[in-house]
C-alpha cells in the first residue's frame, strides 16, 4: 500500500511542478484529498508556521523593494561586478551570494543577471561561466540567511535555543567554500567566446556585433529619497533576529504550559513569533519613515510572489507531512539503519525531494522532521541543509530561465537531454562541497 501512496505523492508533485505557480499547492491538496478520503489517512496539522514566516519575511522584503532599498543594494552590487570584469567568474557569484544572503531572497538576482551577461560578453568571457554559478549562489544564500523562509523554517524544526546561530555558523562558511569550488568547476567550461560557433554566427549580424562593443553602463539610476534609510532599518531587523536567536534569555518568557504557535512549552517565545513581530515592525518603520505607501508595497513584485509561495507550501507540505506521518514506522524501519550509520545518505533523499518540490522552504519543512525522526543529530541536519537547493536540476526555476534569456551570446542553455544544462555541474559541485564542509565544521563546532 505504501508504494501506491508514494506514487500518488510523487505524481501530485510532478504534475504541480509542471503547472508552475500555485500548481504545487493545488495539486498537493488533490493528493491530500486522496489520502484522506481514499486511503483514510489522519491529516497532520497544516504548516501554518512556515506560511506565517513566508508572509512576514516577504512583506518586509517587498517593503524594502518599494522604498528603493533593493535598487540601492543592486547599484552597489553592480559597481562591484563592473570593477574587475576580468575576474567576473569569481566576483559575480560572491556578490550575488552576499546580496541574497542579506535580502533573504534569490529573486533579487534578476537585476544582476543582465549586468553579469553584458560585462562578461564585452570582456569575451563566456557568460555561461559566471551566470551559471551566480544563479547557484543565489539559491545557496537562502540556507543560512536569517531573512529567508527556508532558514526560519529550519530554526523552528530544530527547536532549540541558538539554532539560528548554529545554522549561520555552519552553512554560511560551508556554502562560501562550495561556491568557490563551483567557480573553479566552470572556470574553463565550454569554448572561449571568440571560438564559440554560436557566438561567431551571431557576430555576423552588424547590430549584434555593434552591441558587443558599445559600453552600455549608462548613468546611475536615481534612487528614492528613503532608499538608504530602508536598508538601515532592514539591517537592524536582521541584527535583532540574530540576537534573539543567539541570546534567548534576552527574549521575554512566560509561565510554562501547553505549546502553541506563539509560545513554546517552556514559556519562551517561538521563532515564528519573534520573526513575525520584528519583520512586520521593520516594515511599518520603513513605510512611516521613508513615506512609502502601502499600495506600493502590495504592488511590488516580491509581494505578489508571496501568494504563490504560501499556497504552494500550504498544499504540498500538508500532503507530504500527512504521508510521512502515516507511514512513519515503515520509513524509519527502512531508512533508520543506513541513515544512522551513514548520515550523509539522508542528503540524497533531501536533494531528490528538492528537485521535485521547487521550494527550499517546502523541502525543509517536509524532509527535516523526517531526519529528526530517523535520529539524526542537529549537526548532521544543518550540514545537509544546503541539499534543499536542488531546484536547479530540472531547468524550470525562474532564475535559471532568466539567466538563459539574458545571455544574448547563447552560451547559457538547456541541452538536448534537458538535464544536461549549464547549471547542473556548478550546482552539484557547490552543494556537494557545501554538505561535506558542513559535516566537517559540525564535527568540531557543535
TrEMBL record:
The chain crosses the membrane at residues 6-38, 50-70, 90-113, 133-161, 167-187, 231-251, 271-290, 302-321, 341-358, 370-388, 425-445. Keywords: Cell inner membrane, Cell membrane, Membrane, Transmembrane, Transmembrane helix, Transport. It is found in: Cell inner membrane. It comes from the Bacteria. One of its GO terms (cellular component) is plasma membrane. It is a multi-pass membrane protein. Pfam families: DcuA_DcuB. GO terms for molecular function: C4-dicarboxylate transmembrane transporter activity. NCBIfam families: Dcu, PRK09412.1, PRK12489.1. This is C4-dicarboxylate ABC transporter. It comes from Flavobacterium aquariorum.
Amino acid at each position: 500500500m505504501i508504494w501506491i501512496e508514494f506514487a500518488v505523492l510523487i505524481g501530485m508533485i510532478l504534475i504541480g511542478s509542471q503547472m508552475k505557480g500555485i500548481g504545487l499547492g493545488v495539486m498537493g491538496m488533490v493528493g491530500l484529498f486522496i489520502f484522506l478520503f481514499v486511503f483514510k489517512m489522519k491529516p497532520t496539522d497544516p504548516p501554518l508556521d512556515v506560511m506565517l514566516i513566508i508572509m512576514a519575511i516577504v512583506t518586509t522584503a517587498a517593503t524594502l523593494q518599494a522604498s528603493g532599498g533593493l535598487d540601492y543594494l543592486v547599484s552597489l552590487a553592480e559597481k562591484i561586478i563592473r570593477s574587475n570584469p576580468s575576474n567576473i567568474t569569481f566576483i559575480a557569484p560572491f556578490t550575488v551570494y552576499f546580496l541574497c544572503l542579506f535580502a533573504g531572497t534569490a529573486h533579487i538576482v534578476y537585476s544582476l543577471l543582465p549586468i553579469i551577461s553584458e560585462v562578461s560578453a564585452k570582456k569575451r568571457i563566456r557568460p555561461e561561466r559566471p551566470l551559471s554559478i551566480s544563479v547557484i549562489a543565489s539559491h545557496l544564500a537562502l540556507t543560512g540567511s536569517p531573512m529567508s523562509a527556508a532558514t526560519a523554517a529550519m530554526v523552528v524544526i530544530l527547536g532549540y535555543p541558538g539554532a539560528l546561530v548554529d545554522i549561520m555558523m555552519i552553512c554560511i562558511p560551508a556554502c562560501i567554500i562550495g561556491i568557490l569550488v563551483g567557480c573553479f568547476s566552470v572556470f574553463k567550461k565550454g569554448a572561449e567566446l571568440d571560438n564559440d560557433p554560436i557566438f561567431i554566427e551571431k557576430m555576423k549580424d552588424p547590430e549584434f556585433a555593434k552591441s558587443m562593443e558599445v559600453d552600455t553602463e549608462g548613468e546611475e539610476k536615481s534612487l528614492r529619497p528613503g532608499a538608504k534609510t530602508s536598508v538601515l532599518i532592514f539591517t537592524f531587523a536582521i541584527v535583532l533576529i540574530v540576537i534573539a536567536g543567539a541570546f534567548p534569555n534576552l527574549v521575554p518568557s512566560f509561565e510554562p504550559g501547553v505549546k502553541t504557535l506563539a509560545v513554546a512549552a517552556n514559556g519562551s517565545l517561538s521563532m515564528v513569533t519573534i520573526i513575525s513581530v520584528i519583520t512586520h515592525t521593520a516594515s511599518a518603520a520603513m513605510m512611516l519613515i521613508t513615506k512609502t505607501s502601502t499600495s506600493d508595497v502590495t504592488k511590488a513584485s516580491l509581494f505578489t510572489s508571496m501568494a504563490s509561495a504560501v499556497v504552494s507550501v500550504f498544499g504540498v507540505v500538508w500532503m507530504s507531512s500527512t504521508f510521512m506521518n502515516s507511514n512513519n514506522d515503515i520509513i524509519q524501519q527502512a531508512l533508520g539503519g543506513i541513515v544512522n550509520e551513514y548520515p550523509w545518505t539522508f542528503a540524497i533523499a533531501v536533494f531528490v525531494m528538492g528537485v521535485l518540490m521547487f521550494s527550499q522552504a517546502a523541502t525543509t519543512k517536509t524532509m527535516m522532521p523526517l531526519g529528526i525522526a530517523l535520529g539524526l543529530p542537529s549537526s548532521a541536519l544543518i550540514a545537509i541543509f544546503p541539499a534543499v537547493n536542488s531546484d536547479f536540476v530540472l531547468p524550470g526555476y525562474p532564475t535559471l530561465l532568466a539567466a538563459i534569456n539574458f545571455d544574448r551570446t547563447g552560451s547559457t542553455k538547456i541541452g538536448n537531454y534537458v538535464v544536461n544544462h549549464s547549471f547542473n555541474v556548478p550546482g552539484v559541485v557547490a552543494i556537494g562541497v557545501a554538505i561535506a564542509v558542513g559535516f566537517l565544521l559540525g564535527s568540531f563546532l557543535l
